[in-house]
Write a structure and sequence with these properties.
With 188 residues, the protein is of the alpha+beta class. The protein has helices at residues 11-19, 24-38, 91-103, 164-170, 174-187; strands at residues 50-60, 65-71, 76-78, 80-82, 109-110, 118-124, 133-143, 159-163. Strands 1, 2, 3, 4, 5, 6, 7 and 8 form an 8-stranded mixed β-sheet that branches.
Length: 188
């Protein structure tokens, strides 16, 4: 569903992208596309062929585990996240809201800081209500101190705590494996 909000994009998005250093040729190309998109008045509008989303890999640093969620539409185990609600333009706030909605974890905090961990332009298949499109996904790490409180938002979208190696085996998405590898380096 397209929104009609044409307000200029938050400078926080431009600052976030300017402060991110892409790693490798794929992320460098994705970063260039995202930077160009950041100035568009409809950069978060899900009715456009390419728009921003924000997501987070939830981590429990003491156990070095990560929380994966089954995404029915993508048919894949992935991180939590999604579209901004109308008027939302702050990526970290969107990722935290989505994390709370999808896991019930109320204590999610940026970890080890609020930096963008990974940027990936990902294809999204067509559905009965939307044509195929792409997400410029802004990925963060969020930590919880209460991993046992995680609850799926619905039975079709289970959650599972896994080691990084188990999560790499579980997912079919190479771009998400890169996010997992970055998390592994930060978790030590």
């Amino acid at each position: 569903m397209a929104t009609t909000d044409t307000a200029p994009q938050s400078p926080d998005l431009a600052r976030l992208l300017a402060g991110h250093r892409p790693q490798g040729p794929v992320e460098t190309a994705d970063h260039a596309r995202a930077t160009a998109l950041a100035g568009a008045p409809d950069a978060w509008d899900r009715g456009t062929p390419l728009h921003f989303t924000a997501s987070a890999l939830i981590v429990h640093p003491p156990t070095r585990r990560v929380l994966l969620r089954w995404h029915v539409r993508q048919q894949a185990w992935l991180q939590v996240g999604g579209h901004g609600d109308p008027g939302e333009t702050l990526p970290l706030d969107i990722a935290r809201r989505e994390g709370l909605e999808e896991t019930g974890l109320a204590d999610l905090t940026p970890w080890p800081d609020a930096a963008l961990v990974h940027l990936a332009v990902v294809p999204v298949p067509a559905s009965p209500v939307e044509p195929a499109h792409e997400h410029a996904d802004l990925r963060f790490l969020l930590a919880t101190g209460t991993p046992d409180d995680a609850r799926p938002e619905n039975p079709a979208s289970p959650l599972e705590w896994l080691s990084i190696d188990e999560a790499r085996q579980r997912t079919t998405e190479e771009n998400f494996r890169e996010t997992l590898d970055r998390a592994a380096r930060l978790l030590g």
